Amino acid sequence: MESIHEKAQVLIDALPYIRTFHGKTFVIKFGGGALDGGGEESLSFAQDLVLLQHIGIRPVVVHGGGPQISSLMGRLGMAFEFVNGIRVTGSDAMEVVEMVLTGRINREIVTMVHRHGGRAVGISGRDAGFLVGTRKVHDGRDLGHVGEIVSVNPEILDLLDRHRYIPIVAPVGVTSEGEALNINADEAAAVIAGALKAEKLIMMTNTRGVLDDKGELLGSLDREEILSLIGRGVIAGGMVPKMQGCLRALAEGVGKVHVIDGRIAHALLLEIFTPEGVGTEIVRGGGE
Ligand SMILES: Nc1ncnc2c1ncn2[C@@H]1O[C@H](COP(=O)(O)OP(=O)(O)OP(=O)(O)O)[C@@H](O)[C@H]1O
Ligand SMILES: [Mg+2]
């Protein structure tokens, strides 16, 4: 059984991390897959957020919702298609995407944080002109409402931060004409982390990290290794936009970028407060 002394030691071991990260911004992408893993892990995620906030770290959460969107589209009898991990989004699909992301998942995360004594406010890219973008054309293909972010207006995040609310961001953007855009949540997290010059971007997903062709965890990857793994098809599907987001965040000045297993209880604390870390760290290449 753990003694009082061991408990004290755990807290003291966390002290250098608390001192280093006090006042720093962490952007945390919580994948829809991780959210679907069951109640307990998601609740532990909310607890971790509240703890981070109370020790003076500024968490900004961006969530996904791929499996939940597919599930509702299936129940509504709607067909869906992916191109390189990106959902082709016609007008009907966009309605479902926005309903599930801002109407359901966003609210669930906000509520979980409040249940643990934290303070959170849910926003989408439409609020206060936060994420403005345009439709994205992929290899000459029309992907409907799939968008890319053109400008980030972080004013709303500063406002929430000043009053100590954790922003929970649904990755829905808006065009200058007011049309809704389906933004890949990894891309949204990367762009927001870049705009805030975040200390860390942590991608919480439904695998142990980035895996090689034998299913082994890759502890650290740089740009060249990632491009080669994508070229060989080892990194595929939803992991492609995630890796692109990680590289973009590093290029835009984010300090550190990690892909970790959001299905593990308290994965966030393990990543932040232990020297070993968990999952895959994405690093700048040698020459950069
Ligand atoms: N080399 C790889 N290592 C790990 N996962 C991989 C790899 N290549 C492809 N994948 C797939 O990528 C998936 C993770 O991306 P996915 O988009 O499904 O989840 P997410 O981004 O966490 O959630 P959401 O899209 O809802 O935000 C894994 O579940 C796995 O199926
Ligand atoms: Mg994804």
From TrEMBL:
Pfam families assigned to the protein according to its UniProt record, in alphabetical order: AA_kinase
Compartments where located: Cytoplasm
Reactions it catalyzes: N-acetyl-L-glutamate + ATP = N-acetyl-L-glutamyl 5-phosphate + ADP
EC number in record: 2.7.2.8
Residues at the site labelled Transition state stabilizer: 29, 242
Example GO BP: L-arginine biosynthetic process via ornithine
Annotated pathway: Amino-acid biosynthesis; L-arginine biosynthesis; N(2)-acetyl-L-ornithine from L-glutamate: step 2/4
Keywords tagged on the record: Amino-acid biosynthesis, Arginine biosynthesis, ATP-binding, Cytoplasm, Kinase, Nucleotide-binding, Transferase
Binding residues for substrate: 65-66, 87, 182
Enzyme class, broadest EC rank: transferase
Keyword Phosphoprotein in annotation: no
Domain Aspartate/glutamate/uridylate kinase, residue spans: 24-261
Chief location category: cytoplasm
Gene Ontology molecular functions: acetylglutamate kinase activity; ATP binding
GO cellular component: cytoplasm
InterPro entries assigned to the protein according to its UniProt record, in alphabetical order: AceGlu_kinase-like_sf, AcgluKinase_fam, ArgB, Asp/Glu/Uridylate_kinase, Glu/AcGlu_kinase, NAGK-C
CDD domains per the UniProt record, alphabetical: AAK_NAGK-C (cd04250)
NCBIfam families with a match to the protein in the record: argB
Family that this chain belongs to: Belongs to the acetylglutamate kinase family. ArgB subfamily.
Function: Catalyzes the ATP-dependent phosphorylation of N-acetyl-L-glutamate.
UniProt name for this protein: Acetylglutamate kinase
